[in-house]
Amino acid sequence: MDALLEPDQAAEWIAVPGEHDDKYSRGVLGVITGSVRYPGAAVLSVEAAARTGVGMIRYLGPGRATRLVLQRRPEVVTAEGRVQAWLVGSGQDAADDDPMRDERIAQAIERAAPTVLDGGGLGLRARIPAPVVLTPHAGELARLLGVERDEVNTDPRAAALEAARRLDAVVLLKGHTTHVADAAGRVLLARSAPTWLATAGAGDALAGVLGALVATHADAVAADAGVLVDLAATAAVLHGLAAERASRGGPLTILDLAAELPAAVAALVHNH
Q1: Which of 67, 84, 125, 159 could cysteine-pair with 152, CB 3.0–4.6 Å?
Q2: Domain range for residue 230?
Q3: pTM greater than 0.85
């Protein structure tokens, strides 16, 4: 039977740094998001990852997106180097006018590390030799499976499982109830988000949260890739709890949500 991941269970997947940790041991996340057309997605994904908790973020993207990221988060590193996990694809699509995108993605593929694929990165699964989490919404998942969106909406659990099996990946199907499935048939549900979260940029932030969690648990993923199901469901729970704090019963922006992530993390840890 499918299990609903509760906040106290999600707290087990928050990596709290110890006194001997440094920026490398806390996890380095490589981020290849945003584009010439959608530079804001880079800002949102990086902002959410930084506020979830990670030792360092390396951002690789086009010029304008890079400038916006550094204006918002000057601590982000824009040089190549080692990473523990990758986040690829938020705010990107086939119409990207960025000749360097494929080169950046090739670097990520060559440095095989657990990878979160979102947006324009969803079609890259076959090229990545490392464990992967895909984060589609219903329309994107329908395209991946070659079915109508209504079919996904009618039975999201079955659609997520089918995609996980076909692609040999963990699939996080976004929605008011989020379904996370893997190729072995395990399914976790997350349901902590307010309906106000149905707004542009929410998926970019979720991908950032998940990327940070994967980077901080890279050793656990290396030992057992099955934990990606738990990490993905935890990201959905944390994303929803931060949105609830930001909303307070009304509309929210995604930067509002990101600003509430540290408090949401702290509440999970302290109440656990």
Answers
A1: 159
A2: 3-271
A3: yes
